[in-house]
Amino acid sequence: MTLKRAEEPLALGLAGAVLMIAALLPFVFLVVNLVRAPAELSAGLALLGSREPWFAFLRSVASSLVVTIASVVVGAPLGLLLGSTDVRGGKAALILHAFPMFLPPFLLALGWFYLFGRSGLLGGSAQTSDALFSLAGSIAVEALAFAPIVTSLVALALQNVDPSLVEAARVAARPWRVATRILLPLAWPAAALGALVVFALSLSELGVPMFLRVRSYAAAVFARLGAVQYAPGEALVLTLPMVLISVALLVLERRLIGPRSFSVLGLRSAEKSTLPLGKWRPPGTIIAWAAALATLFPFVGLAWRASTGIAALGDWLGSGVRNSLVPAAIAATLLTGIAVVLGRAIALGRPGATALDALTVLAFVTPAAVLGVGLIGVWNRPATQPVYGTLAIIVVGFVARYAVLPTRTFAIAVAHASPHLEESAAVEGAWFLRRLGRIVIPLQARAIAAAWLLAFVFCLRDLETTILFYPAGSAPLTVRIITLEANGPEPVVAALALVHASIVAAALVLGGLGLRRRKAE
Amino acid sequence: MTIPIFVDRLGFRRGARDILSDVSLSIGAAEVMAVLGPSGSGKSTLLRIILGLVAPDRGLVHLDSQLASADGRILRPPEERGLAVVFQDLALWPHLTVRGNLAFGLAAKHLPADDQDERIARMLQRVSLHGKQDRYPADLSGGERQRVAIARALVLEPRALLLDEPLSNLDVALKRELSSLLKEILPERRVTTVYVTHDLRETMRLADRFAVLEAGRVSQVGSLDDLLVRPATAFVRTLREDAGQA
Inter-chain contact A171–B79, Cβ cutoff 8 Å? Predict the structure, then answer.
């Protein structure tokens, strides 16, 4: 009986322990190492005393802010258009537009390069190439890659708005006023959440600035972990300003967005109220589809360049696909298990759950370079080589960085379900594990599948975490593509990028079909 | 100005199910018509068709003898019909204050700011909410929210008011309070009213006439006496019994 009573705290404790080992230890390492190594600390602080790192840091923060603003300016109206109006094919346009957010942005940068680079399909001039290989080019590529995050969150939020709020407004005002005064303000928590995610991802972004030869702070940290400029102590100190940013983002999320995200996002298939555009429907449809297709435009470049590289794919793929799929699948499964226990605890306000939720948010908004330095410090020891020297370290990295995604997905699903379902089972004498197995999991199977899929595709898209510590000879596909980009044949790099995009598309299509089937059931 | 509403042979289908079949009703100017029916009888759909939020598959909606919807088409969009609505869940916009909720429709009519302020102040006074114009819906009690919803509808001086089960989620005391308010305010405004509910007791002392909808069809239309003395169906008899217990 006592053990049964302890089932729930034990399960939450286990999920918490895994999270703390994966996500909290790296932060503890960073702090402890700085305190225990005063020489490194003072050398690093001297480095931070110079102008150069601060200039790079402020430049990265500023460019991430511009990316965020551009993503919101494009994504929020587009989310409104695709999420709550009667534009033709809005759902299909939203799916196509959203696809690039599940890919590493540097794949899109590659596509833009094959379109507008010196030997590109549409470029060929120094002007287009120079524009691409600049800070402005990097910002534009990132904004186009990240805007779908804001679009999708806003569209999802608007689909969950109570239809009577819209109908009460429609009785009194024209659709434009309803959109700007009612719908957009109601969607602001989603837009704000999107802005926060975009800012965090942009500040972490390594691939795009590296490929477009734009200096970024994350790349400066990464460079000090590589062979040429190897200086792990400096890398450690350089992460300090980024930690401050992470904490600021965490506070922002807690104060402004956290609780609201539960009312914003959900898997509810509520009755939807569509805003009729009337005579503006044709131009609205054109704008929506143009914006949706613009984010897919880089695939034209990739496909064009890959046309001569597909035949040689077999020689270059190596074990990249396996190295991507295996850790992503294992991590997604582990993360989903954590999400079921922790997400439910967050939704039901169990003690300790809020702190663990904050930890998952912190690990996600923290630039990957910071987390990576911490993970290397924790796991790169003789005793832990079975983890650090194998694909297991990639799994640990994924668990640390992406726990928030499936956890929040599941928490929102539980928050939207009636608490009485589980309470009735408890009254009938079912203990935690039985309730979980017989009530929560079967009822939330769709949310669990969605959580797994989200975790899986985000693990697949990862570059900036794994590039810091992937085991020798076990490079995932994203890492393989960016390393080959420097000295490999372009057609093969483009073909590999298409392989990656196809794997993600296949996962999303299969997952989407599975989720639709479950909904129908 | 208050107007008559006339719906003629309305039909509305969703999938294989007829939500409304051949529904015809005539509501006179300034008349209060209660539309009664069990859950799923099509009451709210009828209301949404009159509002212009959905088009009827078949049939006509006339507002003040002007054709507003006809056979699958909305000829006058909702915002041009001059109607107002109070939904069951009130649908108060959570990001707007009480004043903001009342001003939304007035601003859409391009009313000068002074006129808006005056109308809002008068209406808030009328529903005993003066001094609460800067509160958000979340900061109000259930009864206050209900009164804001009624004030938001009436401040527009609508040609007709549509109420969709406005009291169904309230406790007995609140129901009584709001029912009294409606009883005072509707005759005072002389506004055509369609009051949709499943509970005859809510509308017994409020409505001039009653229409009963069952499975998407009108089963009886008449005065309270007609319903109580000559119930046409078993459902109307149930209504009578419930009303008798009140």
Answer: yes
